[in-house]
UniProtKB/TrEMBL annotation:
Protein name per Swiss-Prot or TrEMBL: HSP20-like chaperone
A matching Pfam family: CS
Gene Ontology CC entries for this record: cytoplasm
InterPro entries reported for this sequence: CS_dom, HSP20-like_chaperone, NudC_fam
Domain of life: Eukaryota
CDD domains: p23_NUDC_like
Entry GO MF terms: unfolded protein binding
Coiled coil: none
Species this chain originates from: Corchorus capsularis (Jute)
Length: 234
């Protein structure tokens, strides 16, 4: 179980400025890693950094976990998805701390809200998720961001929770794949196709033609007495 050292709010206000800055030098994160709940430690560390620095503020879009394509903008929250993950953004009053948040991520259910209040989201998820690979964090002390890792990475969710408003999954648009994201054999095949396409455009031999030429050269070297003057490369 992670244990956080409290941050003095007066100190936080005194250290505010318009440019990003690291946490005050006197601030430290004291955490105890519980082997039975490693994600809890990571979650606490992320929340600690989010609260006490500008790392996750505007201008650092790459660090945010909010990517709300292929979902819905609801009255109390927004959600979106890729084939791998579901992202949820929940606006809360400015100044909300992570200790004020209640977030329970289970394989088939989700409950998110503020402690002592009616949950903002509560219900059975459209599909199963991996709790140990999912997490939540505070962004700018005014948005709860939740990232859920899907178990089935080939399915688009019609809704966040069962019985909720649905989207038309026929209109879902997958993110462009990066070559570096592909598996070994698939990546090699794609690279070969791209190479052959470029070679054809430049009027140069394809990878198969180059391979055939190399085989012929080796055969000719091993058989110098043969006459290859009328041989054609196919």
């Amino acid at each position: 179980m992670a244990i956080l050292s409290e941050f003095n709010e007066d100190q936080e206000n005194n250290n505010c400025c318009s440019c990003p800055h690291p946490p005050p030098s006197g601030l430290s994160f004291n955490g105890v890693l519980d082997s039975s709940n490693p994600m809890g430690f990571l979650e606490s560390a992320l929340n600690f950094v989010s609260q006490n620095s500008d790392m996750f503020k505007k201008g650092s879009a790459e660090r945010k976990i909010s990517s709300l394509a292929n979902g819905l903008d609801m009255e109390t929250h927004s959600w979106g998805q890729s084939l791998q993950e579901v992202t949820i953004n929940i606006p809360v009053p400015q100044g909300t701390k992570s200790r004020d948040v209640l977030c329970e991520i289970k394989m088939k259910s989700l409950k998110v809200g503020l402690k002592g209040q009616t949950p903002i989201i509560e219900g059975e998820l459209f599909e199963s998720v991996k709790p140990n690979d999912s997490y939540w964090m505070m962004e700018d002390q005014k948005v709860i961001s939740v990232l859920l890792t899907k178990c089935d990475k080939m399915t688009w969710w019609k809704s966040l929770v069962k019985g909720g408003p649905e989207i038309d999954t026929q209109k879902a648009e997958p993110e462009p794949s990066k070559l570096s994201d592909l598996e070994g054999e698939t990546r090699s095949a794609v690279e070969k196709m791209m190479f052959d396409q470029r070679q054809k455009q430049m009027g140069l031999p394809t990878s198969q033609e180059i391979e055939n030429q190399e085989m012929m050269k080796k055969f000719m070297a091993r058989n110098p007495n043969f006459d290859f003057s009328n041989a054609k490369m196919m």
